[in-house]
Amino acid sequence: MTIKVHKKKALQMRSLRQRWITNSVLPIVLFLTMVAALASLSITNYYYTGMRDGLMRQAKAQSGAFIDYFMDEGFSDYLKKANQAISDYEEKERVEMQFVSSTGRILASSTSNLTVGVRPGTDDIANAAENNRIAYFQGRDPQTGERILSVSHPLTANGKVVGVMRFVTSLSYADRQARLSVLVICLVAAACMLMVFISNLLFINNVVEPVAVVTDAAKRISQGSYGFSVENKYTGELGELVDNINDMSTKIGQNEKMKTEFISSVSHELRTPLTAINGWGETILADNTGDQEQLKRGLRIMLGESKRLSGMVEELLEFSKMEDGRFTLQLEETDLQAEFEDAIFTYRELFRQEGIELEYEPGEEILPMISGDPERLKQVFCNVLDNAAKHGGAGKRITASIMQEGAEQILRVRDYGPGIPEAELPYVKQKFYKGSSKARGSGIGLAVCEEIIKLHGGTFEIANAEGGGAEVTIRLPAEK
Questions:
Q1: Is the terminal CB of the chain with fewer CB neighbours within 10 Å at N or C?
Q2: What pTM does this model have?
Q3: 217: pLDDT strictly greater than 80
Q4: Is the dihedral of CA 54, 56, 61, 63 positive or negative?
Q5: 354-392 in b/e burial notation, b at 16+ Cβ within 10 A?
Q6: Burial letters for 39-78: b for 16+ Cβ neighbours within 10 Å, e otherwise?
């Protein structure tokens, strides 16, 4: 089972990482690749364009000087003048100067006589001679296979092209510089991609792991592992998410526990009156003596247990209505004081039989009518008085009062029993909660009471009173 969980968690993390890399890292990598490619192309173009422009400027200057100073008398002694210009050329170590005939044959060169008489075969010579304008060639030399850059400038005499001055340089150094620049750009781009990948990987690990843990916890909770909690070693929103998951799990666990206890308690509570009814029914049927006293006693017990059973069923129906939103009020003008006093008088004699004194303080004035549901309010009063007797009857005394304070009518019911443990006070009004009390009941009566008072716009509070016992305070708006 543990191996399956770990495998599932690993698959979840891998899937999240893949989606994150696809949606986040991949666009950045593509962008960096595009930037690196454009930068490499720009730098390479910068090198070659710079060399070509420089060579063109040199060709224009040298050809202009040659035409002005060597060809002012025409084409006579062209070869002699070309060799003289080559001997005066200062950059022959870096750039080769050639004089080419109009037919494309090299007549003189600044580097070696080995190229004299050769036809280079590049299109810059023909373009310069035919179009009478400067032209260039960049590529591999047809003769040597070396990458070169050549610029050809036409030489004119009497308005006619008589030859071409050609400058040739190797591109090996420029190629090395361009490759080095491209390599640096690629390394920088790769470093940036690596940093982006590592930072995103660290980030996604910090996100994926808690998400996978929370997902696993949520699935375990959905499968019934209520109360399960995740170790929270995260900060920020993720830590808050884990806290919320743990809180949800704890509350669901508590609710499930209370529901289980409720079902057990209700089953027991329903079984008790049913057992009494069945037992006395069998006893009466089996009695052949015709004892009227025993018959009446059995019928009274059966009637009392059936009423208690009906009350429990009614309470459960009320709770069901409250849960699905069908719990409504029938509002009318209600004399709250009269309804409260009816409940007091109803229970006073019952409590006296159990040895409990119910004291009532009606207040100094007659309270005005309010808008309310008299049946629902009386249900609350009876439930509160019944709870006071159940849980605080050991004190043998219950006090009740009603009065108006400002815009509210306030009812208080206090017992003088052991009170409610402080740890249980926040939960006593929750549905199904019974706490440490051993008294009979379904555990939903107070939840129903609070819902009724809330629907009336009031508040329902339970607290321990000074001097011992518990006190219920009900506040209702006095306006109609």
A1: N
A2: 0.45
A3: no
A4: positive
A5: eebebeeeeeeeebeebbbbbebbbbbbbbbbbbbbbbb
A6: bbeebbeebbeebbeebbebbeebbeebbeebbeeeeeeb
User: Distance between CA atoms of 116 and 350, rounded to whole angstroms?
Assistant: 137
Q: Enumerate the β-bridge partners of residue 401.
A: 361, 412
For 62, the token pair is 């040298």
Tell me the residue type at 89: Y
Top mean pLDDT of 302-311, 364-373, 409-418 is at: 409-418
69 close to 181: Cβ distance less than 8 angstroms: no
Collapsing DSSP states into helix, strand and coil, what is residue 428?
Answer: coil
Q: Contact 230/217 with Cβ under 8 angstroms?
A: yes
pLDDT at 2: 47
The burial class, CB within 10 Å (0-12 / 13-18 / 19+), for 423 is: exposed
CA distance 472 to 55: 103
* Average pLDDT score, the chain: 80
pLDDT in tens, 96-115: 898 988 888 888 888 766 67
Contact of 458 with 474, CB cutoff 8 Å: yes
